Each structure stands twice: as structure tokens, then as C-alpha cells.
Amino acid sequence: MWRVFMFSYKHRVRYYETDKMGVAHHSSFVYWFENARVEFLRDLGIDYKDIENAGYNLAVVEINGRFLKPVFYDELISIKVKASRFDGKYAKFDYYVFNEKSETVVKGCTKHFVVDRELKRVKLPDVFLNKIKEKLQERE
């Protein structure tokens, strides 16, 4: 639908996000992906709460992660996120996590259906999609 745009989100690994070995627990990446995705949408001019207030959600239907290297307590990581597909009914976000040495440590993706309050699959109103298009055009 639009050209690829990458957004970068920074996060410092907190103690409670690690396991007994001091390594970031794999479940933490689910939260970090969500944080990066929400901030990515905010950067494109869409607050996720506005989507919810309008009666819509992006329901996660699939999540994948490939863990390449460990991430440790107090490490500052960078999560780059892009919408590889977003047509108003379906969205796929790709995530690339980098450590402080700029090494790729995790690659992941989430897939979403747009749903209404009754959890029926619907199309996101054009008002949201148009905001995103406008923001991307400003960056060209």
C-alpha cells in the first residue's frame, strides 16, 4: 500500500525482564514488539487509543521470533519495525532487534486482523489509513 518505512524504538532491558542467567526472557520480546508497534503508529500520526476509541483493534493472530544472540540485563536495545503489509484489513509488522554493538539479535514478525468490538473482521476506516499516507508523503 505504501513505501517501506522503518521506525526505531529504544529500550533498556530491565532486571525483571531477564531470567536466572541474566538474559532477556523470550516472553519480553512480545511486549517490546508491541511497544515498538504502538510507537511506530504514533510516529505515523495514529495513536492506538484512537483506533480503540473508534471501536477497532489490531488483533494479533500470529507472532514469530528468531533468537540469534542473547540480550542481557541493562543493555540498550534498538527495535526497528516496519509495516510490510497494511491494507486496512490485515497488517504484518516486521521487527529487527539490535544490541549495543549493532548486531542483529532477534528477527520477528506479528500478523494482525482488524476487528471491531464484537471481534468481527472489518476494514479500518480510511481516516486512519489516510493519516498514515499523508505522514509518509511528508517524509519523501
Could you describe the 3D structure shown?
With 140 residues, the protein is an alpha+beta fold. Helices cover 25% and strands 37% of the residues. The chain is built from 3 helices and 5 strands, in the order βααββββα. The chain has helices at 28-43, 48-53, 126-138; strands spanning 6-12, 56-67, 76-86, 90-98, 104-116. A 5-stranded antiparallel β-sheet has the order 1-3-4-5-2. The longest helix is centred in the first third of the chain and has 16 residues, at 28-43. The chain is globular.
Biggest sheet, open or closed, and with what strands and sense? 5 strands, antiparallel
Series of secondary-structure elements, N-terminal to C-terminal: EHHEEEEH
Number of helix segments? 3
- Cα gyration radius (Å): 16 Å
InterPro entries: 4-hydroxybenzoyl-CoA_TE, HotDog_dom_sf, YbgC/YbaW
Pfam family, one: 4HBT_2
Protein name: Acyl-CoA thioester hydrolase
Keywords: Hydrolase
Question: Quick recap of the structure?
Answer:
The chain has 140 residues and is of the alpha+beta class. It has three helices and five strands.
Topology:
Blueprint: E1 6-12, H1 28-43, H2 48-53, E2 56-67, E3 76-86, E4 90-98, E5 104-116, H3 126-138
Antiparallel strand pairs: 1-3, 2-5, 3-4, 4-5
Give structural attributes:
Thiol Ester Dehydrase, Chain A, HotDog_dom_sf, 4-hydroxybenzoyl-CoA_TE, Acyl-CoA thioester hydrolase, 140 residues, 3 helices, YbgC/YbaW, alpha+beta, five-stranded antiparallel beta sheet, fatty acyl-CoA hydrolase activity
